[in-house]
Specification:
130 residues, alpha/beta, 4-stranded parallel sheet, 15% strand, globular
Length: 130
């Protein structure tokens, strides 16, 4: 995805972009490119049993620091889950998104495309989550 200079200029004057899926393969590149362009970002990241959302973000940012030789600006990290009502966000985080985010780039998905149980992934992420 290419970000045009016009889009970047508009984004600098506007609110944060809420990005989902920034820990996935494509999402890591979107995160890098948007941050390099100076776009204000908030990222929605699902925690894992052994890994909070902030640590998952730290891993991605650490990778890009090593690749680029410099740190990227840190986006606002929101712990949530696209498969849950209200993205699994707390009332405080939902209010923050309402005040500070002007658009959403939904990039989260399950890369498994076949599943018999429609109450589980990939149905939850790819259909309900969208």
């Amino acid at each position: 995805m290419a970000v045009t200079p016009t889009e970047v200029s508009i984004s600098r004057m506007s609110k944060h972009l809420l990005l989902t899926g920034c820990t996935g393969l494509l999402g890591q590149y979107l995160l890098r490119d948007l941050l390099l362009e100076g776009m204000p970002l908030a990222v929605l990241i699902r925690s894992r049993k052994d890994e909070p959302a902030a640590e998952r973000l730290d891993q991605v940012l650490g990778y890009w620091k090593g690749e680029l030789g410099r740190p990227l600006p840190r986006p606002v990290c929101l712990e949530g889950d696209i498969t849950l009502p209200n993205l699994g966000l707390s009332a405080t985080d939902r209010a923050w998104v309402g005040r500070h985010c002007g658009s959403v780039l939904h990039n989260a998905a399950s890369l498994t495309f076949v599943g018999k149980d429609r109450t589980q992934d990939p149905w939850l992420s790819n259909l309900t989550g969208t």
